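step=encode ok
step=design start
structure_in=
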């Protein structure tokens, strides 16, 4: 822990900049919308792409919070996205940044065209554009950082994620009201317990790949500490989706390490058997006396998700092949707000497949899935371990809708993971050393 802090102190000025931006947003509100982009410009001129990316991830994380004190992050994240995109598009050293988004081109053409019948066309346009920019910007910045300052990038990327989890755990004992969702479940620095479960899951995958391929980046004790932070956060949150997705990733990791082909086949069988496991889930949990922890009283209705899924299916059949674009699901669900409240449901469809199908039709869902699959295949050329990510991801997005949104703290991590694994500069055996100087023009 002390060694981690010492390493962080070497970059204390940059960490103080992040804290200053947060404080500026908390205490001055709209002033941050002007000051932060100007400060970002100065950092970009110095080649500090690392801290621009980390700041973006941090603001996305704070924007997920339900605490009013972080309300500024909701508007600031869009401003950061636009500023980062401008800086990157005008940066002369950008390389290979467009390869990630190419498989999604057909999907986005359809998504933009679908907006013509969207009752909230401009809102849908903003959401679609933000997704385009995320898939354009983040892979390009990751490429630059891996090529020119790999170890520095990977270390502080993991350190920031661990710090978010650690802060949430500390506040659980120091300021419990700040991190306990509706007085019942732990949510850490995220907006709700399920959000913390997803955050723990995606960060688990990120840290596992970084620590496995860069064994000297963290000591064994540091690795144990980070895994303890992830484990405690997931357990305290009690997110079924987050816990089971993490377990599926871990199982896939160990099986694929032993034998890639046999591991993939085994994981496919395990995933296909998911319904069988869930059919006996109540009996298993009851036998282990974990009824309260897994909230069996909500399992029948999936915390109200069955109700909203029925509504989603009803409208999917009305727009089966093609639909009305991003955010159309919000228009549909708004019509049933009173009905959902009677059944104890708040939020969205809680299923990325259904959400994307409802928004863009079956054709859009297929094109969206194709884009992600192509990027998984690109990464698999370097390591078969990426399939462990896919199996965990398939479960996570089946119970949450986070993959259909761009400006959240989860999708960006998945993009970073796939961008890293599909990049030869990530692998020390291919490129033993990387420069640690900022990426200047």
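sequence_out=
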């Amino acid at each position: 822990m002390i060694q981690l802090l010492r390493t962080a102190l070497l970059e204390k000025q940059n960490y103080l900049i992040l804290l200053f931006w947060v404080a500026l947003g908390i205490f001055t509100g709209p002033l941050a919308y002007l000051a932060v982009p100007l400060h970002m410009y100065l950092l970009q001129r110095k080649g500090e792409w690392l801290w621009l990316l980390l700041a973006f991830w941090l603001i996305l994380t704070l924007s997920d919070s339900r605490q009013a004190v972080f309300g500024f992050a909701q508007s600031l994240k869009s401003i950061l996205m636009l500023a980062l995109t401008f800086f990157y598009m005008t940066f002369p050293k950008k390389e290979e940044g467009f390869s990630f988004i190419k498989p999604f081109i057909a999907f986005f053409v359809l998504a933009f065209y679908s907006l013509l019948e969207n009752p909230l066309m401009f809102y849908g346009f903003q959401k679609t554009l933000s997704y385009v920019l995320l898939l354009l910007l983040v892979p390009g910045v990751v490429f630059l950082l891996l090529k020119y300052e790999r170890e520095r990038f990977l270390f502080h990327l993991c350190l920031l994620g661990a710090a978010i989890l650690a802060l949430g755990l500390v506040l659980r004992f120091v300021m419990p009201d700040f991190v306990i969702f509706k007085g019942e479940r732990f949510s850490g620095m995220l907006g709700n317990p399920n959000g913390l479960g997803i955050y723990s899951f995606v960060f688990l995958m990120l840290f596992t790949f970084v620590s496995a391929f860069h064994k000297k980046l963290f000591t064994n004790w540091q690795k144990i500490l980070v895994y303890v932070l992830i484990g405690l956060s997931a357990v305290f949150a009690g997110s079924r989706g987050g816990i089971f997705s993490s377990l599926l990733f871990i199982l896939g990791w160990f099986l694929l390490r032993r034998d890639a082909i046999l591991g993939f086949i085994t994981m496919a069988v395990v995933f296909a058997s998911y319904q069988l496991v869930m059919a006996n889930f109540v009996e298993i949990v009851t036998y282990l006396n974990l009824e309260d922890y897994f909230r069996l009283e909500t399992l029948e209705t999936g915390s109200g998700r069955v109700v909203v899924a029925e509504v989603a299916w009803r409208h999917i059949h009305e727009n089966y092949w093609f639909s009305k674009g991003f955010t159309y699901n919000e228009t549909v669900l708004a019509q049933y707000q009173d009905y959902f409240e009677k059944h104890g449901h708040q939020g969205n469809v809680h299923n990325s497949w259904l959400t994307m199908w409802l928004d863009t039709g079956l054709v859009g869902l297929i094109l969206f899935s194709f884009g992600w699959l192509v990027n998984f295949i690109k990464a698999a050329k370097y390591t078969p371990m990426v399939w462990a990510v896919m199996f965990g991801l398939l479960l996570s997005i089946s119970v949450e809708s986070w993959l259909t949104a761009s400006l959240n703290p989860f999708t960006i991590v998945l993009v970073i993971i796939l961008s890293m694994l599909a990049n030869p500069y990530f692998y020390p055996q291919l490129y033993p050393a990387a420069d640690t100087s900022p990426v200047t023009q």
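step=design ok
step=annotate ok -> The chain has 20 helices and two strands.
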